[in-house]
From TrEMBL:
Membrane topology annotation: Multi-pass membrane protein
GO cellular component: plasma membrane
Protein known as: Probable membrane transporter protein
Main location: membrane
């Protein structure tokens, strides 16, 4: 196992060498060092954000977006585009590290999500995101992340206790992944720059009862794919927001190492403590947003935002109920299959928790 690990990590090291060569050329060869140096605060913030990106189902934009938008009071559109740009490095680096280590991935659902994102993300960038006001971008981010944080604060023991993955039907997994990629890419990722990873992860842990060791690496890869896609689409068509490049110059060398470091460290300390801390931060940013935008929202707006969080939580609980039903159906199928096979051979069927 160790021999295989060493044999494949050279791919990640080669990626790092290539990235830092390009970054050094930009800051030294082309003289962009003053811009990178001037934006050092975002680099400090992304040191934390990149760790969360590699160790949880929440991309680096989970920290980058509120820091730029709420702390530095920059436009929400800048926070969105920066999230795409910085995750295109950090999440890609973490994904290469994950694949080099041969960590288990829910491939059927991931492939479907990538196909759905390939269609949904560009459509969202062209047809949805341009018409979403800056305040609404902040609210979408705040509501989705708050509901996700609350879910983990009261369901973390159950989520962390899953083993393997419910084996139901690969075609079914692929179709679910397609819909997740299409809808989350168009309605969440294209608007906020993050989120498709969280949606896919939620489906895996609530619907398929997937082990965190499978669900989180899978979510990292879909966010990397969507971020790279978002950067390409925006650069070729709508263009990135002013200020993204300068902030990216400062943060990119940090996240290139920070996200893979999160993948490595969380394997040593466990995922539950990190998930709890990040979940708390997700809830905190909701109250931060409500406070900073109280004049624009008014009491009615804040109440509606809180109601939206509740609706998201009800949706999560419905997914969990569907997941329980699927587990029961799978168990019935396996029991029937075992009974049938026991009459003809000594072979047994895979367990419910086995990975495709």
């Amino acid at each position: 196992m160790q021999q295989k690990l060493k044999q494949h990590l050279w791919v990640w090291l080669l990626w790092l060498a290539g990235f830092y060569a390009v970054w050094l050329y930009l800051v030294i060869g082309l003289g962009y060092w003053p811009q990178a140096k001037a934006h050092w605060p975002i680099a400090v913030a992304m040191a934390i954000g990149s760790y969360a990106a590699g160790s949880t189902p929440m991309g680096g934009g989970t920290v980058g977006f509120p820091v730029l938008v709420l702390l530095f009071e920059l436009p929400a559109t800048l926070g969105r585009d920066f999230s795409f740009a910085v995750q295109a490095i950090g999440m890609t680096s973490a994904s290469i590290f994950i694949l080099a280590r041969r960590q288990p991935i829910a491939w059927a659902m991931l492939k479907g999500a990538m196909l759905g994102s390939l269609i949904g993300t560009p459509l969202g960038i062209w047809l949805i995101a341009p018409y979403i006001p800056g305040l609404w971008i902040k609210l979408v981010f705040a509501i989705v992340w708050a509901s996700f944080g609350i879910l983990h604060l009261y369901r973390v023991n159950e989520i962390a206790g899953h083993n393997g993955m419910t084996e139901f039907n690969e075609k079914w997994d692929f179709k679910v992944g397609c819909w997740i990629g299409l809808l989350a890419g168009a309605a969440v990722a294209s608007v906020t720059g993050v989120g498709i990873d969280m949606v896919l992860y939620t489906a895996l842990v609530l619907l398929c009862r997937t082990d965190l060791k499978i669900a989180i690496p899978t979510s990292v890869i879909i966010m990397a794919f969507t971020s790279v896609l978002g950067v390409i689409v925006k650069n070729l068509t709508t263009g990135m927001q002013p200020g993204v490049f300068e902030n990216w110059l400062a943060a990119a060398p940090v996240v290139a190492l920070g996200a893979p470091l999160g993948v490595f460290i969380v394997a040593l300390i466990g995922r539950k403590p990190t998930l709890l801390v990040v979940a708390f931060l997700c809830v905190l940013q909701f109250f931060w947003t409500m406070h900073s935008e109280r004049a624009s929202l008014g009491l009615s707006g804040m109440l509606l935002s809180t109601l939206a969080v509740g609706i998201c939580l009800l949706g999560f609980e419905q997914l969990r109920r569907w997941g329980a039903k699927l587990v029961g159906e799978r168990a019935d199928i396996d029991a029937s299959h075992i009974a049938t096979n026991s009459k003809t051979s000594n072979h047994t069927t895979p367990s419910v928790g086995s990975l495709k």
